[in-house]
Amino acid sequence: MYEAFYQLDKRPFALTPDSAFLFLSATHRKALSYLIYGLGQREGFIVITGDIGTGKTLIIQTMFEYLESKAIRGVRLAAANVGPEDVLPLVATALGLSQNVSTKAALLAEIERTLLHRYPNGVLLIVDEAQTFTPEALEELRLLSNMSIKGRALLQISLVGQSDLRATLDHPRMEQLRQRIIAWHHLEHLTEPEVQEYIESRLKTAGRKDSPVLAPDMFPLIHRWSGGIPRKINLLMDRLLLFGYLEEKDSFDAKDVSKVIAEMEQEFGRKPSSVGAAERAGEPVSHDDLKMAPRRAPGAGKDEYPLDEGLSMPHRSDETTASSEGDAKAIQDSAQDLERGIAALHSQPEEKNDVPQPVLDELPHATKKEVGANKKTAALEPEVSRKGWFARWIGR
């Protein structure tokens, strides 16, 4: 709707995950690096947790594109409320196997035979929504991880789920699985500077040229309302651009954001925020109203969920259980390999530009890389009066 008005190639803040818009914040970079690290180790489990809307699905999507570029087999289990009897059939189906077997033992043998003969280099199994798996179902996955050849697992398993997964893994029956977790990362919310970089990155990927112009005073308000959750940022920014389209605005500031927030809160039956109420009353918004509770910035020490707080996992940190210098070097190498792979996947220079796009690790900050920079000319909508169209649309 508003793409033609702002001369964008596509919607920059759609809710559907699109790896072309990948923004590698510190926390998302680490999550992807751990998945690559686990694939290289071919043992144990990798666990990625995060609150709703923090980008877990996009991490999975990006990981599968990377695996495809490396000709590595990856499968995904995405099911809710999975019990122990469901695990083997789900894995078999994901591997493309028929289930014309009469017993659990026969199905297990068929899976192992397939992994040995078709995928001797191993398979990455990503279990999505793992917080819905019962402890017994997770135990079935642990048994699958026992399949190996020459000391290396045939099935490298990564568990991805909401924060509730931490409580599930703290179950007393999960001790054997917990001891096999070699790396764990909890996706943090974006910081205020990252929120601005995230928004600018998505607009750039969508093909922004001169508009919309975003005033610096709007980003603290967006950060406060969204809590740094990417999905909520997308929801707010999409509505803001729609508002600008209907009002024929090519620039935005904090007052515009406050107005859109008030409208959204009213639509969802929520009490208007103090910032929105102040704006509607014509009062200045105080700096204190925009402040967030103190939080740790990603990459600043304890920026992730500490496994030894609230979980019975002594002697384990969320950085990784492999603490030797060699393993640390392996993680760093995996991260660099990942970034080069992602850069290769998304580097499609414009037609008149033969200069290859630099890889992420050569830039001072990952967010300065233009992800998915293939530019497509969007077909402009017919010239109509936007306000007239909107009035007709609502039947006035």
Helix/strand order, N-terminal first: HEHEHHEHEEEHHEHEHHEHHHH
Look at the structure and give the CATH class of the largest domain. Answer: Alpha Beta
Give the neighbour order of strands across the main sheet. Answer: 2-3-6-1-7
Distance between the termini: 19 Å
Q: What is the number of E strands?
A: 9
Overall helicity: 40-55%
Low-pLDDT parts are 274-324, 348-396
Helix count equals 14
CATH topology type of the largest domain: Rossmann fold
Report Rg. 24 Å
Largest sheet: 5 strands, parallel
* CATH architecture heading of the largest domain: 3-Layer(aba) Sandwich
Beta strand %: 5-15%
| Structural class estimated from helices and strands | alpha/beta
Overall 3D form? elongated
Q: What does the average pLDDT come to?
A: 75
Q: CATH superfamily of the largest domain, called what?
A: P-loop containing nucleotide triphosphate hydrolases
What does this structure look like?
With 396 residues, the chain is α/β, with parallel strands linked by helices. It folds into two domains: 19-188 and 297-344, P-loop containing nucleotide triphosphate hydrolases (Rossmann fold); 192-290, Helicase, Ruva Protein, domain 3 (Orthogonal Bundle), CATH 1.10.8. 42% of the residues lie in helices and 10% in strands. It has 14 helices and nine strands. Strands 2-3-6-1-7 form a five-stranded parallel sheet, sandwiched between helices. A two-stranded antiparallel sheet has the order 4-5. It has a two-stranded parallel ribbon with strand order 8-9. Helix 8 packs across helix 9 (218-226). It is elongated, with a radius of gyration of 24 Å.
